[in-house]
Amino acid sequence: MRFDIITVLPDLLQSPFAHSILQRAQTKGIAEIVVHSLRDYSTNKQRSVDDYPYGGGSGMVMSIEPFARCIDALKEQRTYDEIIFMTPDGVTLNQSMANELSGKGNVIILCGHYKGIDQRIRDIYVTREVSIGDYVLSGGELPAAVLVDAIVRLIPGVLNDETSALSDSFQGGLLDAPLYTRPADYKGHQVPEILLSGHELKINNWRHEQALARTLKRRPDLLED
Ligand code: 6GU
């Protein structure tokens, strides 16, 4: 799967993909993540990518031409299944959306800034608008990194047995049960006896019980259906 991310802050997106599972997915050739600097596609000498809003008001609006030139250049190289715009007024990302997107081929992600982007970019190019939650961030870069991480770890071959997505919170519709490792006694705080018992069946039942209790307490909405 290939991601082309278009941003005014390419430096901000160098490190998030250079570690751990995302790095391994790229080394293995399962995911390709390419960051493009929007300014490189500006049409003027000042390399500007925004302008004053028609109709007045505060804040600048990102112009259509730089995005259009970058997207058109990419589309000449290959076909894209989705052009995603990261925006707080998009559809909220969840695990089922990440699952769906992990089945796609090539995807372009647009990161917005300032007050927003010219509506015509959304009308002409964007196939999907995605938010990562009900709060406002300064730009779409961190949300884009979150989206790519959530998707890439679900592509077959990226995770091994040890890092399996199958036991993730949400994957089974429940939050995870509590986890413990050595020491069994930390300053009097004991690991639950059952986990030391070696009874696989009892341990699995205990974990399921804990997951249910935690979900009921913290996220009852997940149990509704
Ligand atoms: Cl996708 N962008 C911005 N700027 N803020 C957000 C967001 C996206 N999702 C939640 N807050």
Please name the CATH topology of the largest domain. Alpha/beta knot
Residues in helix, % = 25-40%
Number of helices: 6
Query: Strand arrangement, largest sheet?
Result: 2-1-6-5-8
The gyration radius over C-alpha positions equals 22 Å
Strand-residue proportion:
15-25%
Give a verbal description of the structure:
This protein has helices at 20-27, 64-77, 95-101, 119-124, 141-152, 200-218; strands at 2-7, 32-37, 50-51, 61-62, 82-92, 106-111, 116-117, 128-131, 185-186, 189-190. With 225 residues, the protein is α/β, with parallel strands linked by helices. Strand 9 and strand 10 form a beta hairpin. The model has no long low-confidence stretch (mean pLDDT 95). The protein binds 6-chloroguanine. The site of 6-chloroguanine (6GU) has 12 residues, from strand 5. Specifically methylates guanosine-37 in various tRNAs. It is found in: Cytoplasm. Residues 1-224 form the tRNA methyltransferase TRMD/TRM10-type domain.
Features:
225 residues; five-stranded parallel beta sheet; tRNA_MeTrfase_TRMD/TRM10; binds 6-chloroguanine; alpha/beta; Trp Operon Repressor, Chain A; 2 domains; tRNA (guanine(37)-N1)-methyltransferase activity; 6 helices; Alpha/beta_knot_MTases; transferase; Alpha/beta knot; 10 strands; 29% helix; S-adenosyl-L-methionine; three-stranded mixed beta sheet
Describe this structure in a few short sentences:
The protein has 225 residues and is an alpha/beta fold. The chain has 6 helices and 10 strands. A 5-stranded parallel sheet has the order 2-1-6-5-8. It has a 3-stranded mixed sheet with strand order 3-4-7. It has a two-stranded antiparallel ribbon with strand order 9-10.
